[in-house]
Each structure stands twice: as structure tokens, then as C-alpha cells.
């Protein structure tokens, strides 16, 4: 049976591992190691290969939930992980210094994949740092001529993660 | 002085007729137009016909054909297939809906003859129009339609709305916030759905706004406007929107905040590339009225691109047909995740 | 034989050095198809020797500080630098070596997405690094087929390396960090303890990765001239020595 998967991407610390853990039917397999650069100010560890979670459908089909490493130096892993991907969930950490730049980078780097599938955007930690606002993100996307579903989410909240997935599925149904 | 206007009805059930007469009494305090019931169709300013009966439908057609001067109001569940220019009063009969339609009827009555009557001082239409113009130049606003439509048109202002019993709500429309200390969310929704004339609306300077909202918690007006727009839409497009228009989103509505209605999600996804109401209805298999409700709500929150009157030869929506296999897979994923 | 030595510029505040010992230049095919690799890396930024910093901090640990780094040059489109005997380059990845000149790739300003993460927080003294470098040289001597040995952080930043061929050190560091982490995860999922080596056995060589400590790893690249047992044994000893030096 063909492997089907959703891809979670975004900068380090945005909540990819957490989001996958929230909905996976087993604790996700992670490849986290100590971070040795400035990221360690935000978190002790970082994903260097992938996170892997799974859900099994009623007919036995497995849906993979793959998280990419956040840093761009791991782009080779992104290209490997998107193979067979159904769609992309981009998580953006609002606390980072330039979240728009982050968003642009992920949308640009995954543009071919998004073109073939679709993407949704979850903004995390907007409760900790309230600017830029969700409207600002929408304006930013509008300037780029893009309309992607974008929501403020808490990656620890199952309903929030499911809402993102549901929206992505709806978009996929129309594309 | 308010102008007295008369309403005649046809094909209404006895209970609806009784209710109608009671509701007309609510216009007694209106500063612009007071409505009375009349049994004489020729003396009426407006005629209300129940078009959910075959007789009612043929009466409307006949009335339109005879090009009578009265404003026609159709009382109907769906209002599909109504001739142009006929106003719709949705079933069941509700006071807020009736008052809004009567206001629109008063305006139609004035604007319908405005072209010919402008400059003349005689005739009821000219008097209503004059009164409207007069009140619009004063510190507080009056106008036509519902409070929500009024706020939509004044999206760059801060406005204070005071209801009949003196309770107030401040709308900082530009910043999409509202402030109130004595109205519940439902009451503010009702206020938004009520006719402008039943509410006193004042524009606020930025200084006044800052002073008045000092100790009041700001609330997000988007969900409020969204809910109100859906509630009062009744399958009728807002003024300025066309049934055959081509609609496209300029940004994704925050449906997490506005209520995760599956149909709205699907419509938003389709409207990213745009489409007509017919195409959307065809694709989603949803009633046209529900799609119109969504379009209205998007318009109120400025989620729509400027409408294009001419429809592209092939609607982008038309091209989107997910395979059966994919649809099955998505359904299984949804079922597994409980979404 | 030509050996390239490198240190992560960000670690020291001055750039790494190439010491030419040979004219041998060979590229190492990493995969069949070219991998699109992120352009964000710090090593795009050619580092310069800041002698003042180097001298004053010769025996002290050098904290990583953006002030110690050269600002990226955005003016040059493609700059050709005449290389003297001790040519200084930022990173072999970004340098195409010819007989006597290096071409520097143009930094893409819009790609500087990861600058925040590239300033390493770990630091070592020059003495520690000098001793570590000796260990790498020893490794190369003992393993005749070895043509590359790298110390890098477990999250993919190269720290110190010695290569005899023109191989993309930064890519190798980053990819091996993923590989080692995957190997360790697979071991855990297979209910096995302590992943000691990740071994890539290829038709004409081997790549062996192993941990030095919690934050550092060693990658050994060799042709088939060194047998696997030897490579693993010397690799493990070198990692053990490095663990003591870089503790």
C-alpha cells in the first residue's frame, strides 16, 4: 500500500515535534540532539533528521506524520521527506526575530511541493508575543499574492492541530 | 415629523396578519416613517404578498406587470425566482426583519421617485427623502438598512450605537474592536441586526473614543460581525453584490475564530481561486442561500476581492474535481481523527 | 599529497587554514544526483584572520561572537582570489579549487535565514583544538586509505576537519548528524543499546560516524585501502582521545 504522509515543517522551536506527538497514535520517533548554537537559548535540543508519528486508518492504511528539521542546512532532509507527502503544515514561531522571513523561506523552499499539494500555516506562541498579528501574516501573504489558511495555534492542543489538518484536507479536496 | 406610510397585505395567514399589525405598531416611535395597515391596496405605499402560495406568486407577477407604484414585498421562505425590485421578508415573521424591510421599502419609495421628484417639495416620497437627508447632516446618523450594513459602510470610523433603552456599544470599526459594559454578545448581535433607525448612532472623535473606552475591555468585532452577517443575510446578497458576480478571496478568513463550519471551509478553499455563486453551489451541492450568506459575511469582513462583473469563460472552481480515491482517503482520515 | 585542514570560523573568531601538502584534488561524489543544499550556512561568509584576536586569545577559550566574524561580502559577484602558500578559505564547500586559485561563491543576501542559529555557543581553547588536530593527523597516518576525518557537532556544524580530497565538509557534517541521529533512533526502536557506529559501506569506500560525546561526533571517510576493522578501531580510539581532550 502506498505510503501517505503529512509533512510538518517550520523553524526550530515552532512546535513540529509537539504537534506530531499531539495526534500520533504512538510517541513519535524523534532524532533530537543537543543544540550547540544560538537556538539553545530557546530550547536545549533540536531535530536533525526527522520526527515520525503515525495514524492508522480503519482499512489498515498508515498515514505518516513527518516533521522536518527546522534549519535550512538540513534542506537535503526536506527533499527526502516530502516524497509521497499529501500536504504541508508550516508552523511559524512568532517569538523569532523575523517570522515573516521564516515563513517566506519555507514557502519558497517548499514551493514545488506546495504547488503539487497544498499548505496550511499555524502561527505558534502568538500568546507569548502578540506581534506580528495574524492579520499581519495575512497582509504579508497577500503582498506575495498567496492565500494560505493561517491560524494562531497551540501545538500542544489537539483540537488546534486537528483544525489545521482538517483545513488542509479541505483545501486538498478542492485542488 | 415622521411620514405616515401604509402597508397592504395579501395571502397572509390570519395569525401572520395579526402579528404583522402588532409589529407595525413598533414603528410609531420612528422618527422617519410610521407604518399603518390598510385594507385598500390602491392607498398603500407597499404591498406584502405571501409568495409561498401559487396565488401569491401570480399576484406578484401581475403586480409587476401592471407596473404599479407600490413597493412590493414578498413574504417567503427562500425567495427564489422573485422578479427584480421585489423586496424579501423571510419566514417566519420577525419584528427585526420586518422593520428592516419596511425601512428599505421607505427608501425604495423615495429613491424610486427621486429621479422625477427631486427638487419638488410635494409628495410623501420627497418628504421622506428630505427627512433622511436632514437627519444625515446632524451629529447622529440615521440611514437605511441594518446597523451592521451601516457599520460596514463606515469601516473607517469609530461609532457609538445607543439602543432604545439607552444601552450603548462602541464600535471601533477600523480597528475591528467593540466595547460595551451593559450589553451581552447576543444583545449586540441583535442590535447589529436591527434597523438603523431604531438605534441612535453617533460618530466619535479619536479623543472621545480614547476617553470612553478607558476602562472597558476591547472585544474582537470580527466574530460578532460574522455571526450577525450570517444571521441577517437570509439568502439575499448585500447591496452592491451581484448574483452572477465572480467572487474571489483576498485573504483566508480566520475560520478558527469565526466558527469552523465545514461548508465555510470548503467555500473559502474554492474562493481562493474564485468562482460564481452558481459554480460554488454546483461544487458544494449546498443551497444557494447558504453560499450567499457566506459571501455576505466575507464582504462584511472585507475578505473579498473587488467583485468582477464579467465571469471568466471557465470558472477555476469548475476545474477542481477531486478523484473518488482521494475523497475516500480524506473521508477515512477525517473519520479516524474525528474531524 | 594535499591536505585541507579546517576549523569552524565561528569557533575561533578567525578563519581556518589550508595547508597545501599535495596537488591531489578529487571530488567525492556524495549521491548520484546533486543535493540542493541550504545556502544559509555561515561558511558562505569568508572569514579573515583577525590577528589581534588570534594573538590576544591564543591561550584562552575564544567565545563565539558575531563581532569576531567578517561581515558577508555582498558586493562581489564572483571574486577570484590569488592564493598564497597558506591560503585562507572559509569552507571548502564554497571554494572551487584550481591549481592556484579559489573561486568564492557569491553570498546570497536573501538566503541568510539562519544567522541566528549559526553562532555556536560551545567553545574550546586553541590548545585543545591544536591537540585535537594532531589526533586527526594521527588518524590519517594510521589509516592509509582515509582521506577525510571530521569533528562536528551533533546538530551538524563542522568544528575541525582534515581532508585530502575536495569534499563538501559542511554537507558531510550536516548529513552525518542526521544519519547518526537516525542510527541511534533505529537502535532504540530495535531495543538495542548505545549505537556505536553508523557505517556506510560503499563500492569504493566507507564512511563511519560515531559519537565523541553528547555534543560532538566524528566522521571518518576512507577508501577500501583500509579495512573496516581497522577503520572502526582507529576511529573509536580517536573518538576516545578526543572525548578527553574536548571534554
From TrEMBL, chain A:
Record keywords, A-Z? GTP-binding, Hydrolase, Nucleotide-binding
Coiled coil region boundaries: none
Q: Does the keyword Nucleotide-binding apply?
A: yes
| InterPro entries xref list | Gliding_Motility_GTPase, Gpn, P-loop_NTPase
Answer yes or no on keyword Thylakoid: no
For molecular function, the Gene Ontology terms on record are: GTP binding; hydrolase activity
Q: Which family does it belong to?
A: Belongs to the GPN-loop GTPase family.
Q: What is this protein called?
A: Small GTP-binding protein
Organism of origin: Candidatus Competibacter denitrificans Run_A_D11
From TrEMBL, chain B:
Q: Which organism is it from?
A: Candidatus Competibacter denitrificans Run_A_D11
What this protein is called in its record is Uncharacterized protein
UniProtKB/TrEMBL annotation, chain C:
Where do Polar residues bias regions lie? Answer: 16-28
- What is the designated name of this protein? Roadblock/LAMTOR2 domain-containing protein
- Lineage, broadest ranks: Bacteria, Pseudomonadati, Pseudomonadota, Gammaproteobacteria, Candidatus Competibacteraceae
Please give the residue ranges the record annotates as the region Disordered: 14-36
Q: State the organism named in the record.
A: Candidatus Competibacter denitrificans Run_A_D11
Q: Which Gene3D superfamilies match?
A: Dynein light chain 2a, cytoplasmic
Amino acid at each position: 500500500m502506498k505510503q501517505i504522509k503529512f509533512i510538518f515543517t517550520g523553524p526550530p522551536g515552532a512546535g513540529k515535534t509537539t504537534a506530531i506527538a499531539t495526534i500520533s497514535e504512538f510517541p513519535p520517533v524523534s532524532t533530537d540532539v543537543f543544540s550547540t548554537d544560538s537556538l539553545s537559548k530557546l530550547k536545549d535540543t533540536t531535530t536533525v533528521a526527522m520526527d515520525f508519528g503515525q495514524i492508522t486508518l480503519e482499512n489498515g492504511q498508515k498515514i505518516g506524520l513527518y516533521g522536518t528539521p527546522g534549519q535550512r542546512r538540513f534542506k537535503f532532509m526536506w527533499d527526502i521527506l516530502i516524497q509521497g507527502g499529501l500536504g504541508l503544515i508550516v508552523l511559524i514561531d512568532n517569538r523569532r526575530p523575523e517570522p515573516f522571513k521564516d515563513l517566506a523561506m519555507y514557502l519558497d523552499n517548499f514551493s514545488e511541493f506546495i504547488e503539487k499539494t497544498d499548505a496550511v500555516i499555524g502561527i505558534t506562541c502568538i500568546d507569548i508575543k502578540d506581534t506580528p498579528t495574524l492579520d499581519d501574516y495575512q497582509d504579508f501573504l497577500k503582498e506575495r499574492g498567496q492565500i494560505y489558511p493561517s491560524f494562531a495555534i497551540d501545538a500542544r492542543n489537539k483540537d488546534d492541530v486537528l483544525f489545521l489538518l482538517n483545513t488542509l484536507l479541505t483545501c486538498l479536496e478542492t485542488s | 415629523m415622521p411620514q405616515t406610510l401604509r402597508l397592504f397585505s395579501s395571502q397572509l395567514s390570519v395569525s401572520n396578519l395579526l402579528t404583522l399589525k402588532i409589529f407595525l405598531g413598533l414603528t410609531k416611535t420612528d422618527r422617519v416613517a410610521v407604518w399603518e395597515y390598510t385594507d385598500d391596496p390602491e392607498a398603500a405605499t407597499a404591498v406584502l404578498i405571501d409568495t409561498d402560495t401559487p396565488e401569491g406568486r401570480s399576484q406578484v407577477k401581475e403586480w409587476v406587470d401592471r407596473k404599479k407604484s407600490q413597493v412590493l414585498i414578498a413574504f417567503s421562505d427562500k425567495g427564489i425566482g422573485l422578479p427584480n425590485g421585489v423586496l424579501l421578508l423571510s419566514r417566519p415573521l420577525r419584528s427585526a426583519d420586518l422593520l428592516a424591510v419596511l425601512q428599505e421599502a421607505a427608501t425604495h419609495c423615495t429613491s424610486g421617485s427621486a429621479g422625477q421628484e427631486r427638487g419638488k417639495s410635494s409628495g410623501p416620497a420627497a418628504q421622506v427623502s428630505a427627512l433622511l437627508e436632514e437627519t444625515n447632516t446632524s451629529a447622529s446618523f440615521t440611514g437605511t438598512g441594518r446597523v451592521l450594513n451601516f457599520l460596514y459602510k463606515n469601516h473607517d470610523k469609530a461609532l457609538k450605537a445607543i439602543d432604545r433603552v439607552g444601552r450603548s456599544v462602541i464600535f471601533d470599526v477600523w480597528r475591528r474592536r467593540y466595547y460595551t459594559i451593559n450589553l451581552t454578545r447576543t444583545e449586540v448581535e441583535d442590535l447589529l441586526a436591527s434597523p438603523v433607525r431604531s438605534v441612535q448612532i453617533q460618530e466619535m472623535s479619536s479623543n472621545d473614543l480614547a476617553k470612553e473606552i478607558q476602562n472597558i475591555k476591547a472585544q474582537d468585532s470580527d466574530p460578532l460581525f460574522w455571526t450577525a452577517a450570517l444571521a441577517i443575510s437570509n439568502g439575499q446578497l448585500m447591496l452592491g453584490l451581484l448574483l452572477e458576480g465572480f467572487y474571489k478571496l483576498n485573504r483566508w478568513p480566520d475560520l478558527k475564530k469565526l466558527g469552523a463550519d465545514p461548508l465555510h471551509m470548503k467555500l473559502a478553499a474554492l474562493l481562493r481561486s474564485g468562482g460564481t455563486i452558481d459554480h460554488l453551489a454546483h461544487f458544494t451541492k449546498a443551497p444557494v442561500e447558504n453560499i450567499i450568506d457566506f459571501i455576505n459575511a466575507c464582504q462584511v469582513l472585507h475578505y473579498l476581492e473587488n467583485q468582477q462583473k464579467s465571469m471568466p469563460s471557465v470558472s477555476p472552481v469548475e476545474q477542481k474535481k477531486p478523484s473518488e480515491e482521494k475523497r475516500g482517503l480524506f473521508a477515512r482520515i477525517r473519520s479516524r481523527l474525528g474531524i | 599529497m594535499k591536505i585541507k585542514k579546517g576549523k569552524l570560523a565561528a569557533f575561533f573568531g578567525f578563519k581556518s587554514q589550508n595547508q597545501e601538502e599535495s596537488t591531489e584534488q578529487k571530488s567525492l561524489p556524495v549521491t548520484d544526483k546533486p543535493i540542493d543544499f541550504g545556502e544559509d550556512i555561515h561558511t558562505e561568509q569568508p572569514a579573515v584572520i583577525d590577528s589581534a584576536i588570534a594573538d590576544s586569545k591564543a591561550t584562552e577559550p575564544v567565545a563565539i561572537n558575531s563581532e569576531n566574524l567578517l561581515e558577508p561580502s555582498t558586493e562581489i559577484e564572483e571574486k577570484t582570489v590569488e592564493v598564497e602558500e597558506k591560503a585562507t578559505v572559509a569552507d571548502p564547500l564554497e571554494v572551487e579549487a584550481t591549481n592556484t586559485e579559489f573561486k568564492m561563491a557569491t553570498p546570497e543576501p536573501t538566503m541568510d535565514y539562519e544567522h541566528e542559529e549559526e553562532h555556536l555557543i560551545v567553545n574550546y581553547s586553541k590548545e585543545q583544538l591544536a591537540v585535537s588536530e594532531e589526533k586527526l593527523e594521527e588518524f590519517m597516518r594510521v589509516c592509509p586509505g582515509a582521506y577525510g576525518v571530521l569533528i562536528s557537532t551533533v546538530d551538524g556544524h563542522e568544528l575541525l576537519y582534515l581532508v585530502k580530497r575536495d569534499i563538501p565538509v559542511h554537507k558531510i557534517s550536516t548529513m552525518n548528524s542526521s544519519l547518526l541521529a537516525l542510527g541511534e533512533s533505529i537502535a532504540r526502536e530495535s531495543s538495542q543499546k548505545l549505537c556505536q557506529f553508523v557505517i556506510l559501506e560503499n563500492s569504493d569506500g566507507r564512511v563511519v560516524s560515531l559519537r565523541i560525546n553528547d555534543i560532538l561526533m566524528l566522521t571518518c571517510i576512507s577508501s577500501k585501502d583500509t579495512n573496516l576493522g581497522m577503520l572502526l578501531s582507529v576511529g573509536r580510539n580517536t573518538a576516545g582521545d578526543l572525548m578527553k581532550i574536548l571534554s
